[in-house]
Each structure stands twice: as C-alpha cells, then as structure tokens.
Amino acid sequence: MTPWEGLAVFAAGAGAGTINVIVGSGTLITFPVLLAIGLPPVTANVSNTLGLVPGSISGAIGYRRELADQRRRLLRLGTAALLGGLLGAVLLTRLPKGAFDAIVPVLILLALVLVVIQPRVARAVAARGGKVADPDGSPLLVAGIFLTGIYGGYFGAAQGVLMLALMGMLLRDDLQRMNAVKNVLALIVNAVAAVFFMFTASMNWLAALLIAVGSALGGLVGAKVGRRLPPVALRALIVVVGLAAVTKLLLA
C-alpha cells in the first residue's frame, strides 16, 4: 500500500464513521476504496468490518444520553443482532467465493435504494410520534433485527438504514433514540463478525487499522456535529461510490 493509498483508506474510514452514525451505509464509502487499492473482495469486506468497529463505539458513546433508559430494549434487540451477525459471518466464510462475488453487487444496489428512501422513512417515523407502543420490541422486530444482523455479518452496507426502518415501523419513539439504538446494534453486529473473521479469514491488518483510526474520529464527528451536515450531499456521495463499487465488481 502506497502512502497515498493509505491516506485514501484513512479518509474513507473517517467518512464512513461519520456517515454510519448519522445515516448508516458507511461501508459504501470504504469498500470501493479497498477494492480500488487492489484488495480481493472478501479480504476487503472482512478488513472493513473490523476497521469500522471503533467508529461504532465512538458513535454509541456520543449518543449515550439517548441510551440512558433503553437497557431492556438493547438487551433484547442486541441479542438478536449478535446471533444474526455471527451467522452472517459464518456464511461469508463457508459459502463459495463466487457466491460473494455474485451476491454483493445485488446487496449494494439494495443498500443504495434504502439510502435514497431513508428520508421518507425518517419523516414517517417523526410523523407518528406518541408513546412507545412496545418498549422492548415486538417478536416481529426481534426477528427483523436478527435477519438484518445476518445481512450485516455477511456484508453490512446500509444495515443501519434497515435497522432504523424496522424500528420506525414497529416502534413508536423519538427518532434520535432509535438512532442511538441503531448505533449499538450495528456495533454488536460488526464486533461479533470482526472477532470471528480474525480467526477464520484473511485480513489486511494495515487497511483495518487505517479504517479503525479514521472511523473512530469520524464517529465522534458524526455524534457531535453530523446532524448539521447536508443529508442530500451525504446521500449523493454514498450513491456515487456505491455505483462505483458495483461497476468495479462487475468488471473485475
């Protein structure tokens, strides 16, 4: 990795850490950069998963006030996220490499669609308002978080958008409180998958370290000032790099 490539990976990690806290889908920033510097897709994916963990930690810390009285909800949904993330990581290492190459472009395109429609979901959630209908999450929400965890452990782009959409449809609560929960659930998925990958998959440790440092800084930025950033610009950037990743994978 050249110094310029290292700088690009670090910058991508910082951008991903910021975007993950605000919206989700930071993987659509880091994954194409890792492909561009020549990493194989699976190696890029597992290195990225490990690298984004510190960003999830700093984002969760930044939202600690919104998490203050959500312990039971986090325990219930977090267990589902952990089990789903572990299963997704197992599937990534057990399925043939060709399966990843075929599935990931579809997952990226799905993630891009979710990123584009996320504002409508947010507005619908805000319009509902009211008290929490089921503070700990219904069985349907738990099942949805489990399935999203599988997706996150396998690839993970826009898993936060999926989690927010599910909670928005199946809970009645403030959007920022749900975003705080989303950050913790994404952290759980990424962390359990990363630990599994450390012992079972080929990791590029330098790339993971650069993303980790960048994402940790980006997570702090996202938690403190990210709400002031123009969301339209962020989503446009995500769509552009996501389409670049799809093109790279299909032409490889």
Count of DSSP E strands? 0
| Main sheet: strands, sense, barrel | none
Unreliable stretches (pLDDT < 50, length at least 5) are: none
Radius of gyration: 17 Å
Which percent range fits the helix content?
over 70%
Question: β content, as a range?
Answer: under 5%
- Shape type: globular
- Mean residue pLDDT: 83
Task: List the keywords.
mainly alpha, 252 residues
Could you write a compact summary of the structure shown?
This protein is mainly α and 252 residues long.
Structure description:
Helix 1 (3-22) packs parallel to helix 10. By secondary structure, the protein is mainly α. The chain is built from 11 helices and no strands. The radius of gyration is 17 Å and the shape is globular.
SSE map:
Layout: H1 3-22, H2 27-36, H3 41-51, H4 53-62, H5 71-94, H6 97-128, H7 139-154, H8 159-170, H9 175-200, H10 205-224, H11 231-251
